[in-house]
């Protein structure tokens, strides 16, 4: 489905058409398809090359920059000249991006990258989701309250499969990520190398690529996302971080060993949300939206709404009436059938209860905040999570040697 500009919702009071939501390209061009495509090209058994445009390489490196959406790179060519020079060759020379997956948020996207599975399978379908065993919200980025990682996400990672097949496999990231549950269930396999600075990570990633005749190396940078959340993507702080990322990518590209393909991608893009009542709907102060709701999960632009038993239909009706001109508001069943979380019919049974009875994805520049229960998240300038082009489209920039 194409990512054409949606209609101006303020000029059209009718409910947004759920069938018009630009769902991710699972199976042919999403983050979940990247590592399986690369590893399949290296001869790792049991994996399928979903992104047909990519040419196999003996050595593959994925550099994931948190929060660096396709639209944001295109909007800032003067701050990212090296990245901009790679845009035309994105996705195997097609000049096109790939999609993050829904919701377009870090925990979900990193699980999709590492497992090669869509959210309906790996089971991290949002920033904060209900744990059916306890009935509590579980923050899947911070992994709180504690939940045993392996039962929560039981599938092997692509790194584990590659390592077992004799591919030299490594992750190069900040040291504090080494032992986190998210790393354990999404990005483990081979060896982890912790380095503090971006330059150190680029240099070590190049060394790790050269360490094997077949290598699969992952490296990560998070500070661009932090600047966007705090200051917005229309800020000097964010642009300064983008300039730094541009230099890091060039530094790594200049050190690649022979027979290597470097892919620069991201987990999501970002949009700035104005600080006014029309743009920030405060759930904690809105009795109408709160009626019949037991738990509010997800995040501002991609909400999981858990209804009191028996109130599911009423909650769906009210949320559509109040927000349906600015949000795609779907029942769990509708969202699954429309392919929001993966191909229709492929949701694992253990994942169903983690998804909201009602799911709301923002189309306009608006967010559902929760000023009392989520004060820190509600104060963010830049947000993400939904299916708009600014959030959903991510680069697949390529450098080959």
Characterise the protein shown here.
This protein has 401 residues and is α/β, with parallel strands linked by helices. 32% of the residues lie in helices and 18% in strands. It contains 18 helices and 18 strands. The protein has helices at residues 34-41, 70-75, 81-86, 90-93, 106-115, 119-122, 149-152, 158-164, 181-186, 198-210, 223-231, 236-253, 287-290, 312-323, 332-337, 349-352, 375-378, 389-392, and strands at 59-65, 98-99, 128-130, 137-139, 168-173, 191-194, 215-221, 260-265, 271-272, 280-282, 293-296, 302-307, 327-331, 358-362, 367-369, 382-383, 393-394, 397-400. The strands form 6 sheets. Strands 6-5-7-1-8-18 form a 6-stranded mixed beta sheet, sandwiched between helices. A 4-stranded antiparallel beta sheet has the order 11-12-14-13. Helix 10 packs parallel to helix 12 and helix 11 (223-231) runs antiparallel to helix 12. 55% of the residues are buried.
Give a quick summary of the entry:
This protein has 401 residues and is of the alpha/beta class. The protein is built from 18 helices and 18 strands. It is globular.
How is this fold's topology laid out?
Blueprint: H1 34-41, E1 59-65, H2 70-75, H3 81-86, H4 90-93, E2 98-99, H5 106-115, H6 119-122, E3 128-130, E4 137-139, H7 149-152, H8 158-164, E5 168-173, H9 181-186, E6 191-194, H10 198-210, E7 215-221, H11 223-231, H12 236-253, E8 260-265, E9 271-272, E10 280-282, H13 287-290, E11 293-296, E12 302-307, H14 312-323, E13 327-331, H15 332-337, H16 349-352, E14 358-362, E15 367-369, H17 375-378, E16 382-383, H18 389-392, E17 393-394, E18 397-400
Parallel strand pairs: 1-7, 1-8, 5-6, 5-7, 10-15
Antiparallel strand pairs: 2-17, 3-4, 8-18, 9-16, 11-12, 12-14, 13-14
Helix pairs in contact: 10-12, 11-12
């Amino acid at each position: 489905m194409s990512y054409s500009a949606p209609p101006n919702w303020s000029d059209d009071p009718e409910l947004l058409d759920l069938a018009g939501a630009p769902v991710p390209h699972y199976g042919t061009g999403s983050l979940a398809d990247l590592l399986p495509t690369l590893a399949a090209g290296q001869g790792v058994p049991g994996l399928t090359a979903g992104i047909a445009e990519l040419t196999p390489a003996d050595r593959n490196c994925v550099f994931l920059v948190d929060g660096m959406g396709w639209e944001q790179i295109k909007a800032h060519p003067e701050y990212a000249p090296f990245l901009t020079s790679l845009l035309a060759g994105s996705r195997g020379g097609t000049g096109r991006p790939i999609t993050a997956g829904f919701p377009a948020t870090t925990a979900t996207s990193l699980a999709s990258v590492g497992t090669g599975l869509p959210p309906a399978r790996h089971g991290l379908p949002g920033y904060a989701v209900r744990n059916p065993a306890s009935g509590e919200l579980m923050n899947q980025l911070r992994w709180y309250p504690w939940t045993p990682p392996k039962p929560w996400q039981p599938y092997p990672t692509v790194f584990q499969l590659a390592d077992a097949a004799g591919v030299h496999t490594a992750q190069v990231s900040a040291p504090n990520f080494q032992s986190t549950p998210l790393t354990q269930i999404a990005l483990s396999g081979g060896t982890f190398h912790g380095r503090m600075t971006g330059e150190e990570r680029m240099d070590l990633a190049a060394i790790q690529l050269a360490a094997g005749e077949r290598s699969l190396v992952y490296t990560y940078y998070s500070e661009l996302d932090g600047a966007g959340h705090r200051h917005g993507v229309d800020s000097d702080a964010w642009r300064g971080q983008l300039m730094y990322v541009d230099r890091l990518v060039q530094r790594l590209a200049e050190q690649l060993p022979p027979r290597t393909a470097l892919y620069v991608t991201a987990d999501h893009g970002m949009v700035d949300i104005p600080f006014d009542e029309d743009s920030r709907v405060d759930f904690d102060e809105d009795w109408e939206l709160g009626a019949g709701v037991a738990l509010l999960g997800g995040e501002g632009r991609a909400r999981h709404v858990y209804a009191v038993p028996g109130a599911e239909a009423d909650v769906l009706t009210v949320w559509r009436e109040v927000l349906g001109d600015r949000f795609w508001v779907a029942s769990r069943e509708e969202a699954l059938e429309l392919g929001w979380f993966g191909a229709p019919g492929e949701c694992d049974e253990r994942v169903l209860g983690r998804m909201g009875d009602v799911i709301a994805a923002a189309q306009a520049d608006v967010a559902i905040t929760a000023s009392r229960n989520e004060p820190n998240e509600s104060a963010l300038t830049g947000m993400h999570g939904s299916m708009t082009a600014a959030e959903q489209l991510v680069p697949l920039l390529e450098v080959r040697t």
